[in-house]
Write a structure and sequence with these properties.
Blueprint (H helix, E strand, L loop, with lengths): L1 H25 L86 E5 L15 E4 L5 E2 L4 E3 L4 E22 L2 E8 L7 E11 L4 E6 L6 E4 L7 E9 L5
Antiparallel strand pairs: 1-2, 1-10, 3-4, 4-8, 5-6, 5-7, 5-8, 5-9, 5-10
Length: 245
C-alpha cells in the first residue's frame, strides 16, 4: 500500500513542469491591451483640472524679532505750497477781564489863555487899555492892573479884540514888546454905535508882553462899554514850542 502511494506521488511531481509549460502556451493576450497583436487605439483627451483644494489654516505667529537699528535721518523736504484758508471757525466766548494796569504818568498839558472886557471908557492915547472885567484868566497870565498879557510859555498865540465904538472915532493898535503889530481904525457915525475888531497870530518868547492901546494923538479913543455894550480882548496858546515838550 505504501509502495503504491509513493509511486503515485513521484509521478505527479514529474508531470507538474510539463503541465505548467502547456498552460503557459495556452494563455492568450487580452486583445484590448497594448500588448495585443491588434492595432493600438488613439490616445484619449486629458481630463479636466480638478477643483483647487481649500486653503489651509493660518499658521501661528512666530516669535517677535529683535528691534532693528535706527536708520539715518533723511534730508529735509521742500516746503509745501500754502494751502487755501480754511473756513472761519465759530466765535469764541468773551474772555475774563484782565487785571487793572498801573496808573501811567500823565502828559502835561500847557495852558495859557485869557478873555477880558472893558468896564469904562478907554484911557488917554498911547497907554495900554486896562480891561478889568475878567471872563477867564485861570493861569493869571493877564495882568488887569497893567492891561498887559505876559508870555510864560514860548509858542504860537492867537489874539483878538472886538470893540464898541461910540461918541468919537477909534484908532487902536495891538502891541508886542513896545512895537505896534496891527492897526484898526473906525470912524464914528453920529447917533450910531459901531464895532471895530482885529485878530492876529504871534509867536512869543518867554517874557514877551502883548497889549492893546489907543494909537496916535488926538481924540481917537472912542472905545466904549456899558451894561449892554462890551469891548473885549482875548488871547490863547495854540501850541508850545517843540523844546518846551
Amino acid at each position: 500500500m505504501r509502495g503504491s502511494a509513493g509511486f503515485l506521488l513521484c509521478s505527479l511531481l514529474l508531470l507538474a513542469p510539463r503541465c505548467t509549460e502547456v498552460a503557459a502556451q495556452d494563455v492568450q493576450p487580452d486583445p484590448k491591451t497594448p500588448c495585443a497583436n491588434w492595432m493600438g487605439g488613439a490616445p484619449g483627451y486629458p481630463g479636466h483640472n480638478g477643483l483647487p483644494g481649500r486653503d489651509g489654516k493660518d499658521g501661528k505667529d512666530g516669535a517677535k524679532g529683535e528691534k532693528g537699528e535706527e536708520g539715518l535721518q533723511g534730508h529735509k523736504g521742500d516746503q509745501g505750497e500754502i494751502g487755501a484758508p480754511g473756513p472761519e471757525g465759530p466765535r469764541g466766548f468773551p474772555g475774563y477781564p484782565g487785571q487793572k494796569g498801573e496808573k501811567g504818568e500823565g502828559a502835561f498839558v500847557y495852558r495859557s489863555a485869557f478873555s477880558v472886557g472893558l468896564k469904562e471908557r478907554a484911557p488917554h492915547p498911547n497907554v495900554p487899555i486896562r480891561f478889568s472885567k475878567i471872563f477867564y484868566n485861570e493861569q493869571s497870565h493877564y495882568d488887569a492892573s497893567t492891561g498887559k498879557f505876559l508870555c510864560s510859555i514860548p509858542g504860537t498865540y492867537y489874539f483878538a479884540y472886538h470893540l464898541t465904538v461910540y461918541l468919537t472915532d477909534v484908532k487902536v493898535s495891538l502891541y508886542k514888546k513896545d512895537k505896534a503889530v496891527i492897526f484898526t481904525y473906525d470912524q464914528f457915525q453920529t447917533n450910531n454905535v459901531d464895532q471895530a475888531s482885529g485878530s492876529v497870530l504871534l509867536h512869543l518868547s518867554s517874557g514877551d508882553e502883548v497889549w492893546l492901546q489907543v494909537y496916535g494923538e488926538g481924540d481917537n479913543n472912542g472905545v466904549y462899554a456899558d451894561n449892554i455894550n462890551d469891548s473885549t480882548f482875548m488871547g490863547f496858546l495854540l501850541y508850545p514850542d517843540p523844546e518846551v515838550h
